[in-house]
Amino acid sequence: MAARYRLMLEEKAGFPVSLTARILGVSRSGSCSWLANGCPEDDWSAERDAVMRVWLESDRRFGFRFVYAILPPEFSRLTRYRVLKLMRKLGIRGCTPNARKRTAVPDPKARPRPDLVRRDFASPVPTYKLVGDITYLRTGEGWLFLATVIDLCTRMVVGWSLADRMTADIAVAALESAKSRGYVAGNAIFHSDRGAQYTSRLLAEWARDNDVRLSCGRTGSCHDNAVAESFFATLKNEMYHRRRFATRADAKHAVVEFIEADYNRRRPHSTIGYQVPAQAMESFFERTRPEPEAMPSAA
Q1: What is the reported pLDDT for 52?
Q2: 65: how many CB neighbours lie within 10 A of its CB?
Q3: CA torsion angle for 270, 276, 278, 279 (degrees, to 10)?
């Protein structure tokens, strides 16, 4: 803003003040106040550059809350409101939500399952309480389906699976992925909607063999599985809706990169105090890792 006022001052002899103010998008009263205060320089240039840098490094995804959360320590005096104001002046903003279509189709013949979560999406420790869902992605070759498993304590996507068809196998493959990486504890809870893939006999058998308790929300209630729904909204808003995929292979590569490189390892999560999910998970394992036994001293 100070630069615009200074330009108005330089062009005052050749152009009317009202004209230059209108062209530069500033007010005459603001320029007069700037002159009366001794023509101060813009005190927010460094902060504005930092905000722009963080926003660009997020691939233009982050809103003011996330930008504020990961600004360098030297800008800790900034408030959220100031970051929002700086972003507005820069003309930048985070990704906006898009509508989500329903994909879960319940099986009327499926055996009933209890809701062990009851919208309590907190967990005392990682790997104990998990949620999952399936979404679809359109490509030039047809549909691609993504199943995920999310840890409620760290919000890390601990398991995922991609397939050309939405069958029970994709849900089992996502859970098997999480289990093989050590992110499913004994007697863990896995919560989902009542889609046919999650009430299938195949998933029930896997859960029995791997000591996992299955839980389901009510039919047609997205709030009963809000964490899984929220992740898909983030994936689509910040990656999928911003690109076009000619092949399923292109979409698979983009999904894996978003989950493993961006969401799990770079993107802070507000629910866990703006920590990064993978870092929160690793911190837990470091705290609980047994100390190595001391070597016996030589006699």
Answers
A1: 83
A2: 14
A3: -120
Instruction: Using the predicted structure, report yes or no on whether residue 10 has a pLDDT greater than 90.
Output: no
| Amino acid present at 189 | I
- The DSSP bridge pattern shows strands 188-192 and 212-216 to be parallel
| Distance between first and last Cα of the chain | 77
Beta-strand ranges (E) seen in the chain are 129-139, 142-151, 157-163, 188-192, 212-216
Q: Which residue has the higher pLDDT, 109 or 239?
A: 239
DSSP 160-185: EEEESS-SHHHHHHHHHHHHHTT---
Answer with the residue of higher pLDDT: 48 or 124: 124
Domain that holds residue 15: 1-42
Same domain, 171 and 38: no
- Give a yes or no: residue 268 inside a domain: yes
Instruction: Read off the pLDDT of residues 113-147 as tens digits, 9 standing for 90 and up.
Output: 888 988 888 899 999 999 999 999 999 999 999 99
Same domain, 3 and 60: no
Are residues 166 and 277 both part of a single domain? yes
What is the DSSP-derived secondary structure letter of residue 240?
G
Neighbours of 286 (CB within 10 A): 8
Q: What is the DSSP string of 195-235?
A: BTTTSSHHHHHHHHHTTEEEEE--TT-GGGGHHHHHHHHHH
Structurally, the chain folds into a number of domains equal to: 3
pTM: 0.68
Q: What does the radius of gyration of the chain's CA atoms come to, in whole angstroms?
A: 26
